[in-house]
């Protein structure tokens, strides 16, 4: 069915079709609508979900952990400060191998207070052991929400699927919905080996784990992350075979014959694709790499993509506050350390707090990349693009 | 149809965002690709606000702001005194204003030469039919007439469906809006 939906509405529809056993959530701009719409589905009897309206995001994530440990399929939604308040529990969910799915809207972190898009919130949680998939538009957000539940449950890892605040969360777009009956069929039942509520086979979760075994347990969690990419690929393919929309781990656009490329994530990926088209109309061979799956970082696919061009401009909508630039840039540089085919690389931090980025501005970045190609030198590794006083 | 961009000017509470959403909804139902989004700032009743549409036959990839719309819709004529409503409008652009004045007068007031100007007294229509000054839906009717972007009848059905969802217990509001859209569609001078 083809409909008009905002990113938030699309994610809420996906949640309705997934019909999770438990949703525990606390509202926060700009993700409020996801929870609000879902609570209406609960009220209207469209889902069988036990909805827990908790008093904070810390409690939301905690309730999700408890429910997931019982073997339930569990989802929640949050943004920005809400994810920050969950931070402590994020590690617990991952450590206990609880496949919770968060529908997240990427919003900047205070201070200064701001409700608009950047990727600071999820980047600050990137080491928590959660899968992270950043989407470009409402359709991808809807599709990925469904996919992620399956990926997470198969890998026994929690996951975050995100959209850009307001740009996608509140923007109305054409979305193709899957038939209601097909989504539960695609996902199947969650299979669990251990349940907290199975009184005949009692288990202990979350006990003290000191020098004798903590390291082994952490190592197995790291292994799960090491082994998850084939699961993600498999679920994406199954989804594509069934519903006709295929998604890659790394989204390459006009890259094969490109001389320079931009690496970016989220909704700017779409804007940059238009910039690619315009540059190519002028005869300039440019390409685009969009990091869709960010955690785990897809080392092989990304190395392959980056190695296709001479110069890469990495656009980050967050800063590591380490003097080393943005998160994506640091990951991309790191994987190329042992590569024989290293492109020159420059980091453009842009769009913090929702500052708009236009097609023309992205074209200007491509022009800078050609200048670097010509001179063979990167004058400044990290620049702040579109900010006063730069 | 090549990509076309629309900017709606209104004041907080006048329904610029709703109009953009209604337009987007209707366009999707007629097979178009669309975007509809407001500019989110501090939300206050009466403050100047913007809403935007993109419409095309092909998937729309860009997610940047709209700076050079081909069509501008002005829900409140007093905005023309304080906001540059024609900013970024191309030579062959279209301006649609809720006003009692004539198209010629508005054209002069805005200092336009080549652009097309359409006027309709949407506030009067809204006050007469809905007993309130809510110019957004009549302006939507006028937009469809002036732009010919969508077929009128399917658009009406789509708007009716969305309004029914928004006002499930107020059929008079739904019918009033439909009536206002139809009247503005007839009255706008094209």
Written description of the protein model:
The complex is a heterodimer of chains A (390) and B (190). Chain A is built from 13 helices and 15 strands. In chain A, helix 1 (7-18) runs parallel beside helix 2. The relative contact order of chain A is 0.11. The longest helix of chain A has 18 residues, at 138-155. Chain A has helices at 7-18, 32-43, 57-69, 80-95, 120-123, 138-155, 182-187, 214-226, 228-243, 268-281, 299-306, 327-335, 359-375, and strands spanning 2-6, 22-25, 50-53, 74-79, 101-106, 131-134, 159-164, 172-176, 250-253, 260-264, 286-291, 293-295, 311-316, 344-350, 382-385. Helix content of chain A is 41%, strand content 19%. Chain A folds into two domains: 2-242, 3-Layer(aba) Sandwich (Rossmann fold); 250-385, Rossmann fold, CATH 3.40.50.920. Chain A is α/β, with parallel strands linked by helices. Chain B has seven helices and six strands; from the N terminus they run βαβββαβαβαααα. Chain B has helices at residues 16-29, 79-82, 103-109, 122-130, 136-147, 152-166, 171-187; strands at residues 4-11, 33-38, 48-56, 71-74, 94-98, 116-120. A six-stranded mixed beta sheet of chain B has the order 2-3-1-4-5-6, with helices on both faces. Chains A and B meet through strand 1, strand 8 and helix 10 of A and helix 1 and strand 2 of B.
């Amino acid at each position: 069915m083809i409909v008009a939906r905002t990113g938030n509405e699309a994610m809420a529809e996906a949640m309705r079709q997934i019909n999770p056993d438990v949703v525990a959530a606390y509202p926060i701009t700009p993700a409020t609508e996801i929870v609000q719409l879902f609570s209406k589905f609960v009220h209207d009897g469209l889902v069988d979900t036990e909805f827990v309206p908790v008093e904070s995001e810390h409690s939301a994530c905690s309730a999700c952990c408890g429910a997931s440990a019982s073997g339930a399929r569990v989802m929640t939604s949050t943004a920005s400060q809400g994810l920050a308040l969950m931070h402590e529990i994020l590690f617990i969910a991952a450590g206990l191998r609880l496949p919770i799915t968060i529908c997240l809207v990427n919003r900047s972190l205070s201070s200064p207070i701001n409700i608009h898009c950047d990727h600071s919130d999820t980047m600050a949680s990137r080491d928590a052991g959660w899968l992270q998939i950043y989407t470009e538009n409402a359709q991808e957000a809807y599709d990925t929400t469904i996919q992620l539940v399956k990926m997470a449950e198969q890998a026994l890892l929690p996951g975050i699927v995100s959209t850009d605040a307001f740009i996608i969360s509140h923007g109305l777009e054409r979305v193709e919905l899957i038939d209601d009956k097909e989504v539960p069929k695609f996902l199947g039942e969650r299979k669990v080996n251990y349940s907290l509520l199975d009184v005949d086979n009692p288990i202990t979760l979350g006990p003290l784990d000191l020098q004798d075994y903590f390291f082994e347990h952490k190592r197995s969690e790291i292994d799960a992350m090491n082994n998850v990419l084939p699961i993600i690929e498999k679920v994406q393919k199954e989804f594509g075979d069934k519903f006709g929309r295929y998604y890659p781990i790394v989204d390459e656009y006009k890259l094969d014959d490109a001389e320079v490329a931009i690496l970016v994530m989220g909704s700017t990926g779409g804007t940059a694709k238009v910039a690619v088209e315009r540059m190519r109309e002028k005869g300039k061979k440019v390409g685009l790499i969009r990091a869709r799956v960010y955690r785990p970082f897809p080392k092989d696919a990304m190395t392959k993509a980056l190695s296709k061009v001479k110069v890469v401009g990495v656009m980050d909508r967050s800063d590591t506050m380490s003097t080393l630039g943005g998160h994506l840039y640091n990951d991309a540089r790191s994987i190329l350390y042992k590569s024989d085919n290293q492109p020159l690389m420059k980091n453009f931090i842009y769009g913090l707090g929702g500052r708009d980025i236009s097609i023309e501005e992205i074209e200007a970045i491509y022009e800078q990349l050609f200048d670097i190609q010509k001179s063979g030198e990167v004058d400044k590794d990290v620049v702040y693009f579109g900010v006063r006083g730069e | 149809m090549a990509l076309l961009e629309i900017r709606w000017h209104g004041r907080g509470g006048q329904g610029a965002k709703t109009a953009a959403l209604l337009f987007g909804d209707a366009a999707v139902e007629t097979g178009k690709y669309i975007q509809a989004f407001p500019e989110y700032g501090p939300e206050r009743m009466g403050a100047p606000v913007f809403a935007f549409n993109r419409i095309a036959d092909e998937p729309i990839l860009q997610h940047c702001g709209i700076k050079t719309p081909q069509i501008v819709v002005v829900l409140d004529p007093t905005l023309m005194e304080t906001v540059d409503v024609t900013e970024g409008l191309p030579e062959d652009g279209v301006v649609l204003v809720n006003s009692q004045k004539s198209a010629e007068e508005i054209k002069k007031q805005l200092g336009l030469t080549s652009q097309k100007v359409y006027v309709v007294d949407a506030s009067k229509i809204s006050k007469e039919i809905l007993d309130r000054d809510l110019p957004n839906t009549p302006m939507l009717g006028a937009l469809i007439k002036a732009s010919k972007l969508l077929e009128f009848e399917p658009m009406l059905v789509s708007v009716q469906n969305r309004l029914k969802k928004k006002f499930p217990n107020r059929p008079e509001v739904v019918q009033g809006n439909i009536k206002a859209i139809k009247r503005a569609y007839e009255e706008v001078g094209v």
